[in-house]
Amino acid sequence: RLYIKRQGWIEIVCGGMFSGKSEELIRRIRRAKIAKLHVMAFKPAIDDRYHSEAIASHNGLIADAQPVKSASEIMSLITPEVDVVAIDEVQFFEPEIVEICQDLADQGKRVICAGLDQDFRGKPFGPTPFLLAVAEYVTKLQAICVICGAPASRTQRLINGRPAAVNDPVIQVGASEQYEARCRHCHELVV
Ligand code: ADP
Ligand code: ZN
After folding, report:
1. Residue 86 φ/ψ, nearest 5 degrees
2. Hey, whose CA ends up nearest to atom 21 of ligand 1?
3. pTM for this entry
4. Complete edge-to-edge strand list for the sheet that includes strand 137-141
5. ipTM score assigned to the predicted complex
6. Residue numbers annotated as active site
7. pLDDT, tens digit, 9 for 90 and up, residues 14-28
8. Residue of the nearest CA to atom 10 in ligand 1?
């Protein structure tokens, strides 16, 4: 028996801050729209650093996105005609985002997630490692280390210009802190 159209899979774009995850997600959304596919994009409501109703990259690209407070809200907003589901900042969702992505892919949707794979301590971040395990397609991007110019896999957290401590809370959106791209060797953590 031939299955001519068996669609539905999970793509994940991961890496540290400034690695170009949002840029890549927006590129994939734009190409899907050129292909006349029905796209719905989501982001966690917690992430309001740029635009509340858009995915925004550090180099100024923008795509419309619906802010949602929980993973299950995504499920309730998806309509049958949706072909592509895009989710930015996926690390901020609860563990159930993994099953939701799996269900959507099983239903035939192309699911594209973008998010941090490591927190500022260099530890696996929230649901991202589980999505990496179940995704069909994994893209891991590198930024440029601001100290040495090497490819940067990590996100340096600075509080008042100094490296943050291990036991500082992971999520502090909107706090007066800074993040920069660093390689493994230039990444610093106060213990
Ligand atoms: P992410 O979503 O991974 O945080 P973005 O897509 O928002 O990344 O931003 C990527 C853009 O950030 C790059 O195209 C570049 O213009 C800019 N940028 C700023 N600092 C850096 C850096 N240290 N390394 C790479 N890109 C950087
Ligand atoms: Zn470095």
Report:
1. -110, 135
2. 18
3. 0.93
4. 66-68, 39-44, 84-87, 110-116, 9-15, 137-141
5. 0.98
6. 89
7. 999 999 999 999 999
8. 20
